[in-house]
């Protein structure tokens, strides 16, 4: 009897010594690397669930692609031809309606209707050239700037008030995909995972008995500038000028176009936001980094406050850092940051 | 003495097959746990710091000599396929040189006068994923 107990205890001890395994898979979807880590599940179940998520990502990639064949492209064709677009697809209806809401909430700094501007700057291509666009064309588009509010939906029909509308959900799709991934993983009883789509990350549960830890890329150096812990359900998104950009005459032109000027925003190098768990935490972490990147320096904090972004950091073009109080408490720097470089809000 | 002998003989009488089993079980368990847990993991990279500045991280899997400039002079570090030592130092006590080779994860050599520290780190990253 005692002997049995002893064996039981010893095996418990040995079992406790084994580290729970991480199952990790990477793929190339949305034109970028996607990576999912699952903690503490048996490998077969984890791999199966990750595959389901990748399958969903591939579907979304083809569904929302801004310039290849997709439903978005069909809609854009209708707009160009001056036609209404009839659909009963509830997913695209709710996505577009939500994006209408997001444009108005962000005072137009996030504007997914300006696909034509983004295309004119050459960013509708996997490889973009170091050439300036036709500037008079840019001016024309800016003067007759399309807004999401030019779109309305009534009785299965989308109608469009501005022919310049060209939908580009590049600032939303990856975040939306995070929210979809969360649903799939939870439906499959995967409760501890880290999902990374091209830098946009959502944490589910924890890494064992600690929270997931995420590094934040330094916008000008090859290493990370800091790390943050993501509590269960939180997401992190960064808009930066260091991934999709080109240089002309030593000047950097990034894919983050300021709808007000028609030109790439250039007052910041990167803007990072953390969003708490919600049904659209992923989408918001993707979308809300845009207004903080694009808006002028003196408006960034008030916009963050208005949007309820408690955790944010903007690295300005001159290297100065604007950071929220909550974010400063959370962040762990990898290098010494001079106090006079920091503006804490 | 008599009493002890008595106890002893009683004990001898009571060694049964289960006791033998237990003895062998514990010997086996000791060997097993020693093999399993007594492994000092080898590091993969050398991290060099000067003051609070990170000079860099270098693979241990090479044979090179690095010379690092510090506040009182040059420190020479030798990486020799998996192990590292400080070979020259401008400091007076030369503790860093006397420490000799290091090759285990988290081992560190510090040269306080020259504000330099080198430590062996693993391939484990400081974070689970990267936001960019």
List keywords for this structure.
heterodimer; A: 345 residues; alpha+beta; T-fold; 2 domains; globular; B: 132 residues; 4-stranded antiparallel beta sheet; 3-stranded antiparallel beta sheet; 3 helices; 36% strand
Low-confidence stretches of chain A are none
The residue fraction in helices of chain B comes out at: 25-40%
CATH architecture label of the largest domain in chain A: Roll
How many strands, what sense, and barrel or not for the largest sheet of chain A?
9 strands, mixed
Number of helices of chain B: 3
Structural class of chain A: alpha+beta
With strands numbered from the N-terminus, the spatial order across the biggest sheet of chain A is: 1-2-6-7-10-13-14-15-17
- What does the main sheet of chain B amount to? 4 strands, antiparallel
The CATH superfamily of the largest domain in chain B is known as: N-utilization substance G protein NusG, insert domain
Q: How would you concisely characterize the structure shown here?
A:
The complex is a heterodimer of chains A (345) and B (132). Chain A has helices at residues 2-17, 43-64, 71-80, 90-105, 115-120, 135-143, 173-187, 281-287, 289-294, 297-307, 325-330, and strands at residues 22-29, 32-39, 85-86, 151-154, 157-160, 193-197, 200-204, 212-217, 224-230, 235-240, 245-248, 251-254, 268-275, 311-316, 321-323, 332-333, 342-344.
Descriptive notes:
The complex is a heterodimer of chains A (345) and B (132). In chain A, a hairpin with a 6-residue loop joins β8 (212-217) and β9 (224-230). Chain A has 2 domains: 22-61 and 191-344, ApbE-like domains (T-fold); 67-160, ApbE-like superfamily (T-fold). Chain A is 36% helix and 25% strand. Chain A has helices at residues 2-17, 43-64, 71-80, 90-105, 115-120, 135-143, 173-187, 281-287, 289-294, 297-307, 325-330, and strands spanning 22-29, 32-39, 85-86, 151-154, 157-160, 193-197, 200-204, 212-217, 224-230, 235-240, 245-248, 251-254, 268-275, 311-316, 321-323, 332-333, 342-344. Chain A has 345 residues and is α+β, with helices and mostly antiparallel strands. Chain B has 2 domains: 2-37; 45-121, mini-chromosome maintenance (MCM) complex, domain 2 (Sandwich), CATH 2.60.320. Chain B has 132 residues and is α+β, with helices and mostly antiparallel strands. In chain B, the strands form 2 sheets. A 4-stranded antiparallel β-sheet of chain B has the order 2-1-7-6, with no helix packed on it. A 3-stranded antiparallel β-sheet of chain B has the order 3-4-5. The interface between A and B is medium-sized, with 31 and 17 residues. β8 (212-217) of chain A pairs parallel with β8 (129-131) of chain B.
């Amino acid at each position: 009897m005692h002997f049995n107990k002893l064996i039981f205890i010893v095996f418990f001890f040995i079992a406790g010594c084994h580290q729970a395994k991480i199952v990790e898979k990477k793929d190339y979807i949305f034109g970028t690397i996607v990576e999912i880590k699952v903690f503490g599940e048996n490998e077969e179940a984890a791999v199966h669930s990750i595959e389901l998520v990748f399958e969903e990502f591939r579907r979304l990639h083809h569904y929302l692609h801004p310039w290849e064949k997709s439903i978005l492209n069909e809609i854009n064709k209708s707009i160009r031809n001056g036609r209404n677009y009839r659909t009963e697809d509830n997913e695209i209806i709710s996505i577009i309606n939500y994006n209408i809401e997001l444009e108005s909430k962000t005072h137009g700094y996030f504007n997914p209707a300006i696909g034509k501007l983004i295309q004119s700057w050459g960013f509708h291509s996997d490889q973009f050239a170091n050439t300036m666009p036709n500037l008079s064309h840019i001016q024309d588009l800016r003067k007759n700037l399309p807004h999401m509010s030019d779109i309305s939906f009534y009785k299965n029909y989308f109608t469009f008030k501005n022919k310049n509308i060209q939908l580009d959900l590049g600032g939303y799709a990856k975040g939306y995909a995070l929210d979809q991934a969360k649903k799939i993983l939870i439906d499959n009883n995967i409760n501890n995972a880290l999902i990374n789509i091209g830098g946009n990350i959502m944490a589910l549960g924890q890494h064992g008995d600690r929270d997931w830890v995420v590094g934040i890329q330094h916008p000008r150096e090859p290493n990370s500038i800091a790390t943050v812990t993501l509590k269960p359900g939180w997401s992190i998104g960064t808009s930066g000028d260091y991934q999709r950009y080109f240089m002309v005459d030593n000047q950097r032109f990034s894919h983050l176009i300021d709808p007000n000027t028609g030109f790439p925003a250039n007052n910041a190098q990167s803007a990072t936001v953390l969003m708490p768990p919600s049904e659209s935490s992923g989408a918001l972490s993707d979308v809300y980094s845009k207004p903080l990147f694009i808006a002028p320096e003196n408006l960034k904090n008030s916009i963050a406050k208005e949007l309820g972004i408690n955790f944010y950091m903007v690295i300005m073009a001159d290297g100065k850092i604007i950071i929220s109080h909550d974010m400063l408490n959370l962040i762990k720097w990898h290098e010494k940051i001079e106090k006079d470089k920091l503006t804490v809000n | 003495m008599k009493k002890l002998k008595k106890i002893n003989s009683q004990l001898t009488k009571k060694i049964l097959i289960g006791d033998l089993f237990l003895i062998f079980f514990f010997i086996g368990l000791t060997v097993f746990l020693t093999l399993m847990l007594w492994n000092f993991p080898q590091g993969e990279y050398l991290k060099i710091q000067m003051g609070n500045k990170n000079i860099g991280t270098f693979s241990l899997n090479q044979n090179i000599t690095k010379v690092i400039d510090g506040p009182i002079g040059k420190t020479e570090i030798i990486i020799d396929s998996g192990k590292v030592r400080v070979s020259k130092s401008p400091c007076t006590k030369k503790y860093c040189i006397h420490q000799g080779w290091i090759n285990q994860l988290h081992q560190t050599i510090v040269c306080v006068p020259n504000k330099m520290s080198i430590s062996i780190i693993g391939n484990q990253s400081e974070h689970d994923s990267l936001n960019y």
